[in-house]
Amino acid sequence: GLLDPKIKAKGKKYFGSAADPAAISRSTDKLILTSDFGCYTPENRQLLPDDVSSISLKWDATEPSRGSFNFGNADTLVNFAQSNGRLVRGHTLVWHSQLPSWVSSVSSASDLTNVINNHVTTLVSRYRGKIYAWDVVNEVFNDDGSFRSSVFFKLLGENFIDIAFKAARAADPSAKLYINDYNLDGPGAKINAMVALIGRLKSRGVPIDGVGTQAHLILGQVGGVASQLQVLANTGLDVAITELDIRIPKPDSAAKLAQQQTDYNTVAKACINVSKCVGITVWGVSDKDSWVNSVFPTYDSPLLWDNNYVRKSAYAGVDAAF
Ligand code: XIL
Predict the structure, then answer these.
(1) Which of helix, strand or coil describes residue 182?
(2) What PANTHER family does the entry give (predicted)?
(3) Is the distance from the beta carbon of residue 62 to the nearest atom of ligand 1 less than 6 Å?
């Protein structure tokens, strides 16, 4: 059965959810997060553009101006996890999005190296021993497998990845260090680029432990997940499904919800069956709070609890796989 929240402690795979201070302030979310999930990833959901109540672990939240760090919301989430004996995935250290403009304005490679080192060292040291795994770099690739032209890549080439991982390892030698990306669910240029990059990082001795596949999926399009997880595992790294949701083209129907149950089962089984897959994180609790509503407006209902916090059949799909 699923959802012994301490499954990780028993050496099995964890089942986690995105969470943030807003979620744990809502009593129903809090109840579900503590009863059903063993690992939390800060989502940093902003319900309104000026709502900072939940921003926790992304760069715009933690270091909004250079050298000036905010940890209040991240501390809230990490303390909640600690007091409940849960794991935390730290998300994320170096990402082109939710990046404050002062970072994008850095203009020299040496200055940017200092900026990355200081940011990574400060965050990872603060939570040493409390964050189980970090997404050290997030979404470095375009879908065609080329590097995204972030300020990091423009000034440092792929060496920005080496810099970030080395700083993270030095700051917490026991945290698991991940590279994370989306659209790794099917074969093609992007996953090929990821596998090739991992090979280069390993050959340069960069301290990397895992690769995360976000798995923001679409109903009926999950058939490639199992084989691609194995492709990622074949790099020798641990793998994790880090942001799972399976969005339904509007409108919902009974048939689509049944398909979603099947799809969740397929994805959960894929992780169970790949020995290097350490766990699954779903990207939130209730459909009503999912990021999908704002980002993919023609889709809906991607999660395991509906708008009224009723467990969906999708939950049974996951449960049956564990
Ligand atoms: C999203 C959150 O879900 C939103 O609430 C927030 O406003 C923006 O970020 N890939 C990632 C996540 O790595 O951090 C993103 O989360 C979803 C896509």
Answers:
(1) coil
(2) ENDO-1,4-BETA-XYLANASE C (PTHR31490:SF76), GLYCOSYL HYDROLASE (PTHR31490)
(3) no
pLDDT digits (tens, 9 = 90+) for 110-128: 999 999 999 999 999 999 9
Does residue 181 line the site of ligand 1, with CB under 6 A?
no
CA of 152 to the centre of ligand 1 (A): 20
Q: Which amino acid is at 64?
A: P
| Domain assignments of the chain as residue spans, ordered by start | 7-321
Total-model pTM: 0.96
**Of 85, 73, 79, which is closest to residue 7 (Cα–Cα)?**
85
What is the position in ligand 1's atom list of the atom closest to the CA of 139? 13
* ipTM, two decimals: 0.96
Which residue from 54, 92, 97 has its CB within 8 A of the most atoms of ligand 1, so it is best to mutate?
97
User: 72-100, pLDDT tens digit by residue?
Assistant: 999 999 999 999 999 999 999 999 999 99
Nearest to 240 by CA among 209, 278, 267: 278
Active site residues: 243
